[in-house]
Each structure stands twice: as C-alpha cells, then as structure tokens.
C-alpha cells in the first residue's frame, strides 16, 4: 500500500488530509510529518511546508507533489496511486 506523508509546520491535522484519508481508506496509508522531524524532512528533501510525498514499496525514489494545494488537485494526484 502506498504511503502518503503530509509534511506540515502547523499543529493539528488539516481538514484536507482528514477528507483525503477517508476517501482513500484501505487504498493509501496517510501520515503527518512535522517540520520538527528534521531527519525525515532532510531524507525526503522537503524545502517548504506543506508538502506531500508519496512512497511506494516497489520504488526507491519518493514521489513529490509540487502542484497546487487544493483538494481536487491533490485528490486527482493521489487517485493515480490508489489505482495501481
């Protein structure tokens, strides 16, 4: 199952992440990574917040989402991974 990591410098869980995780239940695994987790931020090359990274078990290179941060745009991007 692909893992979706939402890198954030804010507290709490953003509403968009809650909605997406419900829509992709049992297809994608979601997690929040805080900016204070410097090892993970460095490992995945995150430069700005918020950032979304998708990691698939059969790929070495993570997929970095760099488009607009709207629900529809993120949903369309993640839908590709949920169908594989």
How are the secondary structure elements laid out?
Layout (H helix, E strand, L loop, with lengths): L2 E6 L6 H9 L5 E6 L3 H6 L7 E5 L7 E3 L5 H12 L2
Parallel strand pairs: 1-2
Antiparallel strand pairs: 1-3, 3-4
Description:
With 84 residues, the protein is of the alpha+beta class. It is 32% helix and 24% strand. It is built from three helices and four strands. The chain has helices at residues 15-23, 38-43, 71-82, and strands spanning 3-8, 29-34, 51-55, 63-65. It has a four-stranded mixed beta sheet. β1, α1 (15-23) and β2 form a beta-alpha-beta unit. The radius of gyration is 12 Å and the shape is globular.
SSE-based structural type: alpha+beta
The share of residues in helices is 25-40%
Mean pLDDT: 93
Given as residue ranges, the uncertain stretches (5+ residues, pLDDT < 50) are: none
Q: What does the overall shape look like?
A: globular
Largest sheet: 4 strands, mixed
How is this structure best summarized?
The chain has 84 residues and is of the alpha+beta class. Helices cover 32% and strands 24% of the residues.
What are the key terms here?
84 residues, alpha+beta, four-stranded mixed beta sheet, 32% helix, globular
């Amino acid at each position: 199952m692909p893992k979706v990591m939402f890198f954030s410098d804010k507290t709490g869980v953003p509403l968009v992440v809650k909605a997406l995780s419900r829509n992709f239940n049992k297809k994608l695994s979601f997690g929040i990574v805080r900016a204070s987790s410097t090892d993970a931020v460095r490992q995945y090359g995150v430069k700005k917040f918020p950032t979304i990274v998708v990691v698939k078990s059969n790929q070495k290179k993570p997929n970095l989402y760099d488009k607009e941060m709207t629900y529809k745009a993120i949903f369309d991007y993640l839908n590709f991974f949920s169908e594989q």
